[in-house]
Amino acid sequence: MEPRRNQDPGRVRRKRIQAGLNQTTLALKAGISKNHMSQVERGVTGASPRVLKQLADVLGCEIADLMPPEPTVSESAA
């Protein structure tokens, strides 16, 4: 069974790289541990809404930018 995640790990990683930050720096600025940041990016654990807000603030994006994309009509009908 796949772990429940709020965030899209790939999107979190891409936003971090676009911001020119490494995991340690992002974690420090967001007020979370480096280990938790790594787990969020690997999809091992989900980020709480509070952590997602902190990450979005540091990355200069919206929380929605860190979330999985909405399913398209054709995907939801399947």
Could you give a quick summary of the protein structure above?
By secondary structure, this protein is mostly helical. It has helices at residues 9-18, 23-30, 34-42, 49-59, 73-77.
The major beta sheet can be summarized as: none
Task: Report the uncertain regions.
Answer: none
Class computed from helices, strands and strand pairing: mainly alpha
Number of DSSP helical runs: 5
Helix-strand string: HHHHH
What radius of gyration results from the CA coordinates? 13 Å
| Annotation, overall tally of beta strands | 0
Shape annotation = globular
Helix percentage: 55-70%
Beta-strand residue percentage: under 5%
Termini separation comes to 21 Å
Oligomer: single chain
Average pLDDT: 90
Task: Write out key terms for the chains shown.
single chain; 78 residues; mainly alpha
Structure in words:
This protein is mainly α. The mean pLDDT is 90. The chain starts with 8 loop residues before the first helix and ends with a helix. It contains five helices and no strands.
